[in-house]
Design goal:
With 177 residues, the protein is mainly α. It is built from ten helices and no strands. The chain has a domain of 118 residues: Orthogonal Bundle (434 Repressor (Amino-terminal Domain)).
Length: 177
């Protein structure tokens, strides 16, 4: 049974979160034993990664990005560094694409992708759909969209100057408390 079949079988019984948490357990080793075990584990992982087909690496990387996004969105805290831009850059690393290549894959101008990555332009819904397709439907468009909404909510909370400027544009108030 290969890894994908095993994973499908385990998914029938457990959620991804339960599977991830099942690999976290106390080690009960001395510091020296732990260091040796960590080195052995790393050597073993390195050997596996070197022999793993590229496609499997992309698959697991995409799942990692997806779960990082979902975990962040489940939290109530806003973290400026966890932006659409940040996750797009992580996405490019995992897929092994440079900006120009990803822009070509998504059928958008490289400058537009650059503007999104550099936070000078917002992600659009059509691009979120394209990212969903590009990821083989592993990262749903709704996750990209929710990241964008989290950023916009923070802008609304923080931009008192713009709020006051726009309030001055209102000629009549429909209701006064």
């Amino acid at each position: 049974m290969d890894d994908k079949e095993l994973y499908k079988k385990l998914r029938e019984k457990y959620t991804d979160k339960e599977l991830a948490e099942s690999f976290v357990f106390p080690h009960g080793l001395t510091e020296k034993e732990k260091q040796k075990a960590d080195e052995e584990l790393w050597e073993h992982r390195k050997k596996i990664l070197e022999t793993k087909p590229k496609e499997e690496g992309v698959y697991s990387g995409l799942l990692k990005v997806k779960y990082q996004m979902a975990f962040y969105l489940e939290s109530q805290a806003y973290e400026a560094e966890k932006s659409v831009s940040y996750y797009l850059q992580e996405y490019m690393k995992v897929t092994g694409r440079k900006q120009k290549e990803l822009a070509e894959d998504l059928n958008i101008h490289p400058t537009r992708l650059s503007r999104i990555i550099n936070e000078r332009e917002k992600l659009s819904l059509p691009i979120a759909y394209r990212l969903e397709k590009h990821s083989g439907d592993l990262i749903p468009a709704i996750l990209w969209w929710k990241l964008l909404q989290r950023e916009i909510e923070q802008e609304i909370r923080a931009d008192d100057e713009e709020r006051q400027k726009e309030k001055k544009q209102v000629k009549n108030v429909a209701y006064r408390a």
